[in-house]
Amino acid sequence: MNDLPVIGLSTGRMFLEGSNLTGMERVIVNGDYIGAVKKAGGLSVPVPPVCSPDEIRQYVKLCDGIIITGGLDAAPILYGEMPHPGCGIFDLDMDRTHIELIREAIRQGKPLLGICRGMQLINVALGGTLYQDIPSQCPGCGGHSYTYIRGDAVHSVTLDEGSPLHRIYGRTVLDVNSIHHQSVKECGKGVEICARSADGIAEGLCVPGQKILGIQWHPEMLLTKSDESLCLFADFIGQCRS
To answer: Which biological process terms from the Gene Ontology are attached to this UniProt entry (predicted)?
Structure first.
């Protein structure tokens, strides 16, 4: 165990255009994740967006826990579907790396936290499916991509009594931000939905008996305005210490 728990953060990538650096790949991760891990007592290590299985194995071995961060949509082919017209941009090679990162963390028994896209990918990695576009595939569901200032809460979620989220937050109703248009549809093996919005959209998942938790909102962004979400990261870092 390291003095500070080392937390592997999944990363994204972008390719520069319109300059003498056109085509250069940049590895990216939002600084709010790094700040949240630091505030909770951990040390962040970025995991490159495209890695070989051997590299992934070494990164997971190096880390005390893994956070799968938010980002692009998940490639529908990973759960046996063709892209829906409402599906956004995805990066299949990156998705495959993140799926393997999730599975390797589970194999090595490392605590795993999925945020937004990360929650969705945990479900896919365990054999589940997604709604590719909530507005067009879930009639009657409200919009879920309407946080304009990242630290602002815009709707409430209900946490199941006795669930890990209920234990962490100490209550059953939580106000959260919302920046997504995809969500869990059919649950993967062992996955249980432990939080929902008022319109029934899955907002949290867990796998009983394992240190796996996923949330659809962005607590790292809420932390820019209030420490209310620090308990989530503190609990995760605590699991990584044990």
So the answer is: polyamine catabolic process
